[in-house]
Amino acid sequence: MRYCINCCIHLLPNDLHRQCFRCRGPRHNNQKCPVCKGESKIPLYTDSKQMKLLAVLEVRTDHSESWNGFFCLRKGKLCSLIFGLIIMTLVMASYILTGAKHGLLLIPSPFHYGAFTSNPSLMDNESLSDMKDHYQPSKMNISYVKDYPSIKLIIDTITSKIEFITRQRPDLEELRKQEPHMFSVIPNKFLPNSKNPCWYEEYRGNTTTDPYATNSYALYSKRFRTIFDYLRKVFWNHLYHYKDKHYRLRCLPHFYIIGQPKCGTTDLYDRLRLHPDVRFSAIKEPHWWTRKRFGIIRLRDGFHDRYPVEDYLDLFDLAAHQIQGVLQSEAAKERGKTNNIIIGEASASTMWDNNAWIFFYDNSTEGEPPFLIQDFIHAFQPNAKLIIMLRDPVERLYSDYLYFASANKSAEDFHEKVAESLQLFENCMLDYSLRACVYNNTLNNAMPVRLQVGLYVVYLLDWLTVFDKDQILVLRLEDHASNVKYTMHMVFQFLDLGPLSEKQEALITKSPASNTRRPEDRSLGPMLPTTKAILRDFYRPFNTKLAQVLFDDAFLWKRT
């Protein structure tokens, strides 16, 4: 039940009590008011029973009407308003204090490029090390044009420390000690009547045995289970039976597309797959040599069980079945026909990613890895052929950033990440050799963008310590994009592939490009001109050395 405190009238539900406003005017007098006259005590009705209050309320009616609106406000609304203001004040205070603590507001950057941000997508990108705690974002309202002189000092320091020193190649016995199981599985000789490196391996299972039950690629990835389901169905039909024993044909790749990422390797892979004499692994990029054999799926997830070499060889079983069909055909048996089918593998990390060495090999070389991927590949396949697709490293880095960054992508954010990465690289170069920094796992995971992937000549020189120059074909994406037919002919000749019909060649060379930039990334536009100038300066000495090694000034990328 409700009562009007001004005129003591019992209010019914939904009663607006307009009489109160008629009796309460500027000339209102309690003694003359017919309602309020003679009433000094307010009766209180509760549950239809009258009660007398001990206290007497003095009703004041000489206030102006403007104050009525204020007193009619509900206490809940007023308390909510006050509480909201308090919470807002506390949040703002917390933000300011936290920003000051982490250098977001009060600690200015020593360089004009300001904001240092972490990379949310580093593989690959891959959790960042504690080095990032030393570099935090600062004010965003900066002029990027003024960055150049400050960052140029960093680049000059890096350039002054560059030395291209030939690495010491490990001997075969040292490699055997590091990977004894691998050497026990892969033979040192292959079938003489096959262009592709293959051999027969005794299979000791029976018809009820699942040959792929423990394959790590099938266990850890749902994408590959369909492939292995098919392999299980046809596996027994492709065993070779000889003297009451069963043998399976095992193969390694004849050639590797080893790099680099965001340089057109996917397009090259897709076109080569269309050649009738070329097969690839069941998975385009197994990353076995660089990651899976060490148990790395993603660095941020830590280490899993190491993938044995048998799991890697399983990926070539589909191609091995076709090669075996050629070798066991009647024409091959009668005429001694040689198999011309070759297998390729296209992990774009093979050329550059040696980050896992620090966890498995002794660090006895002042920060430089004692063994590299190419040492082991050469130990098993000294005649392997290698294809490298390169691109202007400046544009490669921006494409890499757009592809792997997960949020807040912009030309300004890219600029800041480049600036941070350069400073981190400079810090490493002050204490270590160029090779030690390029293969430094901590540094590579700390840099928000993968600057090191564009140092092509460092990796190429290390590959040339174990492979001859005529075993490596180096292409430019710019040439491939402008004349696909020419570059594909170079690849066919390098791999010694047979001639194609006009229809087959048209299918390979006229198919649309693969793995192009996503529309949403194109809308971000190009990098800032200042960022491009900075990166040009950084990569220039490496491009110059690369052009010298390859005797081709096109690798200077002056016109891109």
TrEMBL record:
Q: Where is the Sulfotransferase domain?
A: 253-517
A Pfam family for this UniProt protein? Sulfotransfer_1
Q: Which SUPFAM superfamilies match?
A: P-loop containing nucleoside triphosphate hydrolases (SSF52540)
Residues crossing the lipid bilayer are 78-97
Oxidoreductase found in the keyword field: no
Q: Which domain of life is it from?
A: Eukaryota
**Gene Ontology BP, a term:** hexose biosynthetic process
Keywords assigned: Membrane, Transferase, Transmembrane, Transmembrane helix
Its EC number is 2.8.2.-
Spell out the molecular function terms from Gene Ontology.
N-acetylgalactosamine 4-sulfate 6-O-sulfotransferase activity
Similarity comment = Belongs to the sulfotransferase 1 family.
State the protein's name. Sulfotransferase
Please name the taxonomic classification of the source: Eukaryota, Metazoa, Chordata, Craniata, Vertebrata
